[in-house]
Design brief:
By secondary structure, the protein is mainly β. It has a single domain, classed as TonB-dependent receptor, beta-barrel domain (Maltoporin, Chain A, Beta Barrel). The chain contains nine helices and 35 strands.
Length: 730
């Protein structure tokens, strides 16, 4: 994505004359940071939820529960409780599915989580993940890449509800500060994976399961954190326990802020989460609400080597570039246990975001507003009969996003609206015969994008439709106790994002519509994915390894001509591939010691294309795709010398990668190695956690970009930092 793409969920770009190219992982806007206790301007719509959740956090509680969440949940003797997460399980890959996957449970999340954004935590938790942060800390806009593919190709859901923006197919995790405090588990599927209730998984998918609501006892917790670069974080959570009438509720409020490592890159975020439900013998009715507020000072542009030589913390943007934003998700789910042993889950949801981006670099004063809202419904049916397991589901949603720009105080530049509708259905089957479990999955999907131009644009409304069929098939074979092998093949397609259709323009009008008006300049991309894997599980060893071959047709890449803003247009590449080996291992052969890690070796090529990124078309063959390292390794050791004390050491190595699609030696992201450390002491209901980040203060880069003029810019790795977290369970 580029700076000019309006790719942030309900965010928009700065004026074309002042833009620079940004990282390919996404376009980050920022907000001016008010005092920590100040209420952002868009707080009123969610004030009641925040206040009520804070009050609820102090409901009297009798028993500590956080460490026993799974056990307490299982103790609830109700068929309805067992289907609380049926929508999640329908989307997720089961343990026998022939799919490359990694599920991180709450215990592991808690050991790694110290308030950082999702991409920064997951980066070391699963193979083939890379991440970078714009502020040089663990907070603020952070982005993931999976097998070298950017975050817009990763399908993201929470309890089965899709979170990807429908126009630009991106999710900004920074909108939901401290999201992981409300998560029971995360599953990362790599490759095509299983069908979802919405947009097809392309690079892979990330599925969040929120903490269970129906717990046996009431409980709560409080956490306070401080650290380097002005880091502050506070969070309080509660669970009412299951009442005699079958009602239960869970809630949490969080607030965080940091000054940022880079100059004027401060971040302030707040969030509130509420889950409430009624649990009967056969029915569950569950409400989930997630609200986020964010304020940043912009840091979306990297720095050149010359600038970094003068000041490692250099931020080329001025403090007048700020962003304020709020995002909300509300879902109401009804689950029913049927008499035939099946379950059905139906969810209706609303997702919305709005805010403004200010570019105040006197005498220029621009304000850009974005507001999007989408409504959706999904229904999933699951049944298991002996050796046969059957899942089917449908999803439909409608989306609208308004793009507005003003020259302050009141001169309107444009006001246009994008509309998108999406409908899909899937059927999944698995059948076990002897040692083999056969798997089949097919998704049908239709999508329409309709563009309503500004009143003074001088053009008429226009639209485009897409239809896709995405099949997958595979088999898992049990070789021996604890040892299985799998093979799968899948095909999936994905439509271009709005930014691809518009060539980086925020507004179509009579002057530019000839270039982009038919919306066919960029075609849908298609992926053929083959996976071969081996899983081995024993009391002292967990090992998974898989080979993958991803072959692309019409892959959308940054190979087009530079725009006036300095960004590189995205166009289709006829043929490309990504092939590799992924390994994930955990060994517990020594008492009180765990050795774990993962690694990825890959070969990635764009076979042939005409590159216009430097202005003059050049034919290129067998080049490496941008930001796709050949080798990634994360490894850790955890020692528990006594009860309640854990000491961990974690390292990460990432080989060099290219910053564009030319394989030019002067446009390289160098390799790097970092080391983090964690120590946790638990005494009764209290715990103290110390976290050291990048202990060697490795002064290299997490990502970078190349502008149309050839300027190379880098985002620095999060610098050496220390964090202390005090927690109390009640």
């Amino acid at each position: 994505m580029t700076r000019g793409s309006a790719t942030r969920a309900a965010r928009v770009r700065r004026p074309a004359c002042d833009r620079d190219a940004r990282s390919t992982t996404g376009f980050a806007h920022s907000f001016g940071v008010p005092p920590f206790g100040a209420r952002p301007s868009r707080a009123k719509p969610i004030r009641a939820l925040l206040v009520s959740t804070v009050m609820a956090a102090f409901v009297p509680a009798s028993t500590p529960l956080l460490a026993q969440a799974r056990q307490d949940s299982a103790a609830v003797d109700s068929a309805a409780r067992r289907i609380e997460g049926v929508s999640v399980q329908a989307i997720r890959a089961g343990s026998a599915a022939p799919i490359a996957q990694k599920t991180i449970e709450r215990e592991a999340l808690t050991q790694r989580h110290f308030g950082q954004d999702v991409p920064m935590l997951l980066m070391n938790a699963s193979p083939s993940l890379v991440s970078h942060n714009e502020t040089g800390t663990q907070w603020g806009y952070s982005y993931l890449r999976l097998r070298g593919l950017d975050q817009t190709r990763i399908n993201i859901t929470i309890d089965g509800v899709p979170l990807n923006d429908m126009e630009d197919q991106v999710l900004y995790f920074a909108n939901f500060a401290d999201l992981l405090s409300n998560v029971q588990s995360v599953q990362v599927q790599r490759g095509v994976g299983t069908s979802t209730a919405g947009t097809a998984s392309y690079a892979g998918s990330i599925n969040f399961e929120t903490v269970p609501v129906a717990r046996r006892d009431a409980a709560g917790d409080v956490q306070l954190q401080m650290g380097s670069f002005g880091a502050q974080r506070a969070t309080v959570g509660f669970n009412t326990g299951l009442t005699a009438g079958g009602f239960a509720a869970y809630g949490r409020v969080s607030g965080l802020r940091t000054n940022g490592y880079r100059d004027h890159s401060g971040v302030m975020g707040r969030s509130a989460f509420l889950g409430a439900g009624w649990f009967g013998q056969r029915d569950v009715v569950k409400l989930t609400a997630l609200v986020g507020l964010l304020a940043d000072t912009l840091s979306y542009t990297g720095a050149t080597l010359a600038e970094l030589a003068q000041n490692r913390r250099f931020n080329p943007l001025n403090p007048g570039e700020r962003d304020k934003f709020g995002q909300q998700m509300v879902a109401l789910a009804w689950s029913r246990a049927l008499s035939n042993g099946g379950t059905v889950n139906t969810t209706v949801y609303r997702n919305s975001a709005s805010g403004n981006y200010d570019y105040f670099d006197l005498p220029d004063k621009y304000r850009y507003n974005l507001a999007h809202t989408w409504y959706g419904a999904t229904s999933v049916y699951n049944v298991e009969r002996g050796a046969l397991r059957f899942n089917t589901g449908v999803n439909a949603n409608t989306y609208q996003r308004a793009h507005r720009a003003y020259f302050q105080p009141s001169t309107e530049l444009y006001d246009n609206t994008g509309h998108k509708q999406d409908a899909s259905g899937f059927v999944k089957l698995s059948y076990t015969a002897g040692r083999a479990t056969w798997f089949g999955d097919v998704q049908g999907r239709w999508a329409r994008f309709r563009y309503q131009p500004s009143e003074n644009a001088g053009i008429t409304e226009r639209s485009i439709d897409w239809t896709f069929v995405n099949p997958k098939a595979g088999v898992t074979y049990q070789l021996a106790q604890g040892l299985s092998a799998f093979a799968s093949y899948g095909i999936t397609s994905r439509e271009p994002a709005r930014n691809d259709l518009f060539g980086g323009e925020d507004d179509l009008n009579a002057d530019n519509v000839a270039d982009f008006g038919d919306f066919t300049r960029v075609k849908p991309e298609r992926l053929h994915d083959t996976e071969l894997g081996l899983n081995y599980t024993r009391p002292t060893l967990d090992l998974s390894a898989n080979l993958y071959s991803m072959d692309f047709r019409n892959d959308i890449a940054r190979i087009g001509a530079p725009t006036a803003s300095g960004s590189i247009l995205r166009r289709n590449v006829g043929s490309s591939y990504r092939r590799g080996l992924e390994v994930d291992v955990a060994w517990r052969g020594i008492n009180r010691v765990v050795l774990a890690g993962n690694a990825t070796w890959s070969t990635n090529r764009i076979r042939q294309f005409t590159d216009s990124s430097r202005g003059t078309p050049v034919l290129r063959r067998n080049v490496e795709p941008l930001l796709t390292p050949r080798f990634i390794s994360s490894h850790r050791v955890e020692v528990t010398p006594r009860r309640g004390l854990m000491i961990g050491l974690e390292g990460r190595y990432q080989s060099r990668a290219f910053l564009d699609n030319t394989s030019s030696p002067d446009r390289v992201l160098p390799d790097y190695y970092t080391v983090d450390a964690t120590a946790r002491l638990a005494l009764g209901r209290s715990s103290l956690t110390l976290r050291g980040q990048n202990l060697g203060d490795t002064q290299k880069f997490g990502s970078g970009s190349v502008s149309g003029s050839g300027t190379v810019r880098y985002f620095v790795l999060p610098a050496r930092a220390l964090f202390a977290t005090l927690a109390y369970e009640f």
